[in-house]
Amino acid sequence: MKRRLNSLLKGFDCEVYGNSSIDVSGVFDDSRKVVSGGVFVAISGLTVDGHEFIDSAIEKGAVVVIGEKKPKKKWLESVTYVKVDDSREALAVLASNWYGNPSRKLKMIGVTGTDGKTTTASIIAHILNRAGKKTGVITTVTTQGLHTTTPEPMELHKLLRDMVDEGCKYCVLEVTSIGIDQRRVWGIDFDVGVLTNITHEHMYYHKTMGEYIKVKAWLLGNCRLAVINREYYDKVKKHLTKKAAVKFFDEQEDFNKTNKEAAALVARQLGVKDKVIKKALKDFKLPTGRAEEVKNRRGIGVYIDFAHTPNALESVFKVLKKKSKGRLVCVFGCASERDDEKRPMMGEVAVKNADVSVFTAEDPRHESVDKIIGEIEVGAKRAGGKIKRNYFIEHDRGKAIWMTINKLAKKGDTVVVCGKGHEKSMNYRGVEYPWSDFDSVSEALRGARKSAAYLRDKKAAVLGLGVEGKDLARFLVSRGALVTIFDQKNKNELDLEDIDVKRVRFVTGEKYLSGDFGQYDVIYRSPGVYRYKKELVRAEKSGVEISSALKLFMDLCPARVIGVTGTKGKGTTSTLIYEILKADGRDAYLVGNIGVPYLGILDKLNANSWVVMELSSFQLIDLTKSPHIGVVLNITKDHLDWHKALTEYIDAKKNIVRYQDGEDFAVINKDYKVSRSFGKDAGGDVVYFSGRDILKIFDPNKFKLRGEHNWENIAAAASACKAVGISEKVIKRAVYAFGGLEHRLEFVVKHGGVSFYNDSFSTNPEPAIAAVKSFSEPITIILGGYDKGLDYGNLGLVISKKENVKNVVLIGDTADKIKKALLKAKYKGSLVELGKAGMREIVNVAFENTPKGGVVILSPASASFDMFADYKERGKKFKEEVKRLVRNGKK
What we know:
This protein is of the alpha/beta class. It contains 32 helices and 38 strands. β25 (522-525), α19 and β26 (545-547) form a beta-alpha-beta unit.
C-alpha cells in the first residue's frame, strides 16, 4: 500500500523541503523498522532523540523525513524533509491520514482515570453491543501488548480502520495520561470522555499531581460530553472547556459497581434503554485479570487482579475482604521506572487492609528488586507491620505465589495476586521475559514453585550432553527456550536421539567453552562441569544466571522430594526408599542417576507425589532449595579431583539440608562425625540414625542385601520413611524383599566353586573396605582405576588385617598407590599387577588364583575413566567376561 505524501500532510502546519508529490510506502518512528520508500518521523523521546537516527533511516531507504530541527544539507540531497513544530502531533495526524481518518467514521468514547479504565471501557462496549450498536474496544487487555494501553498512532489507527471495515459504528478507547501527553490520540474527535477517578500514579513521568490532573482533564475538555465521577470533579473543573456538556455519576463502595455506574450513564446518553442496560450488566464478565477468580479444590479463594496503584489495591482488598471466610492474603510488587512515590503508600495500604502480605518483584527493569521492596516496606512499617508476622518478602514472584498458596494461606482464606493481571511478560534488565500470573498460580496450586512459562524465548546454554543434558535440552526446547548445546565431543559423536536438532544450536569440540557466554540469559551446567570454572564465573559476573537441570527441577516440582547424599550408599538407599513408598501405595518416582530423568516426569507429578533422588556433591554445590527430606549417609573423602578442597566437598553436600524449613526433615547418620555436623546447618527437624539401630527392628538373617555396610543404608531408608509416616510393618516387608542394585556388591554367578561379585560402583576406598568385611570366604579382590587423588592407607590396613584376602589383582592408574599402601601395611597375600590389561585377562587371572569356596570381587576403590567410559561399563564388562568363562567351561 502506498500513499501520496501531500495527502498525508493535511491537518497540521509544516514546512516542506523538496518534493511533496512523491508516493511513500509506510510511516515509521523507529529507524530500525524503516523500509525502502518509507517516511521516518524523528521524535525527541524521554531517553533517545530520533533526530540522531535520521542518517540511519536514510540508509535504510527512507525517502521522507519529518522532524522538528532544521534539515542538514546532506539530507536534502536524498530525501524530502518536512519540518514541524511537534513531531508527535504530526505522527498522530499522519497515521490518521494514512488509514483514511477512521475515527471520523466512528462515535469515539474515551475512558481515562487512574483505575478502572479497562473494566469501564469493556462494560460500555458490552452494553452497546447488546443494544445492537456494533462497537469495537481498545484496552490494555484487547491490544494483547506486553505493557501497552493506548497504542502508538500507527497501530491505533490501523485498529480503528479494521473496526470501520468490519462495520463498527462505535469505538471505546482506553486513554492513558501518557498516551495523551505523547499525542497518541491527537486529531481524534471524542464524542464522549469518561473520568473514572484520579489518584496517585505516574509521578515518574508527570512529576507533579497537578500536571497529571491537567493531562487527564485534556480528554474531558476535548469531547462533546464529559462523564465524570462526582468525587473528582473539583480536581478537573478548571481544565474543562465550554465545548463539553457534563454528566456525573457517584462513587460506590464496590469499585466495580462504580465502573458499572459510569458505563450505564454513558449508555443512557447514547440512547440505550435502561432495560437493555440492566440485562447487559447482569451478564457482563470482567476482563481478564480483573478480580478474576482461579477455581481450585483447596478451599482457598484465589484471585488475580491488575491493581497496581494504592487506590486500586485498597479497592480490591475491601471487596475481597467482605467475600473471604477467613483472612485476606495478598501478593504484589511495584514496577521500576514508574511512580516511586506510590511504593510506601502501597505497603501501608496492604498492612492496613490485608491480613498477610507478600512483597515481591513486578517488572523491576534496571532497578534492584531489593531496593523496590525496601521502599514498599517503609510504608508497611509505618502502618505497624512486622516482617514474618503480617508481611513477608520474597524476591522471586513465582516463589512468592507458591509460598502464599502453599505455606501462608489456610482453608477459608482468600489470596489475591496483584499487579500483573492479564500481562504476558515481566521486564528484567530491559528485556521482556514471558510471564503469566495465571500460569504461576496454576502451578502453585499443583504445588510447583515457578511456572515453566518463564523459559519461553530465554537464551539457554546447556553444557554437556550426557543423560541429564539430553533430558534438559528436550525439556527446554519443549518450553520454547532458545537452546545452544555445548560439548567437548564433536557433533557427530553426540547421541542426538530425541533431540530436535532443527531447534538447537551446537558448539562442539575441544574449545567448546571459548565462546561468549555473556549473550545467554541462563547457563545450565551438567554435573561434571565444575561450578566455578572461570568461564562460568565470568558469565555470572556479567549478569548471566548459572543453573542446572536439578535447580530447574526443584523450582518447578510440585511434589515432595526425598534427596539422598553421602560418599557411598546413595543409590541403594534411594532405591530402597522408593520401594518402601511403592509398597505403601504412594505415588512415587525414582529419578536421576539410577532412575528416570527428572524433568521428563514433571507433568505426571502433583502435590501428593513423592520424588526420590540420589544427589552428588556436583549437583548440590549450587543448590538453593533443599529437599523436603534430606538423607545424609557417610561423608568421607571423595571427588578431590573435582573439588578444590575437602571443605568445598563437605560444604556442597550440606546444601541438602541447609535450605529446609520447619516442615522438613534432615535424616542424618550419627556414626560419622562429619555427617553429624550437618545437623547444625539443617533448617528442618533433625532425625539421627545408626546402622546398629536395625537390630532393634529387623532380623538381619532375613536381609537379601549382603554386607553389614548395607545396614546403614537400611537404617537410613527406614528413618526417612518413618518421617513420611509409613508404618513399621510396611517398612519391614519392603526391606526384606529388597535385593540390592546392579554394580553394588551384585552377585553374578558361581562357577567352579568360585562366586563372582560385581561391585564396580566402588569408586573410592570405603565401599571396597565394606565389601572385604562382608565375606569370611577366601577373597580375590580386583583393585585400581582412575586416580581421583584419594588416600588408600586405611584400605591397605583393613586388607592386611583380613587374613581371608588371599589375592589382590591391581589394575589401572592407582595400582602403584594401592600397592604401596598394602606393602606399608605389611600385606602378606599375593599381589598380581596387570596394569591396563583387558577385562578378559583380569577375570581369568582372578579366577585362576582363587581357591574353590572362595570369592572374586570387582571392587576397584577407584573411578573407571582410565580404562572404561564409566563404572557401569566396567561392571558390565566384568559380568560379560565372567559369563564367558562359564560358557567356555573353564575350570
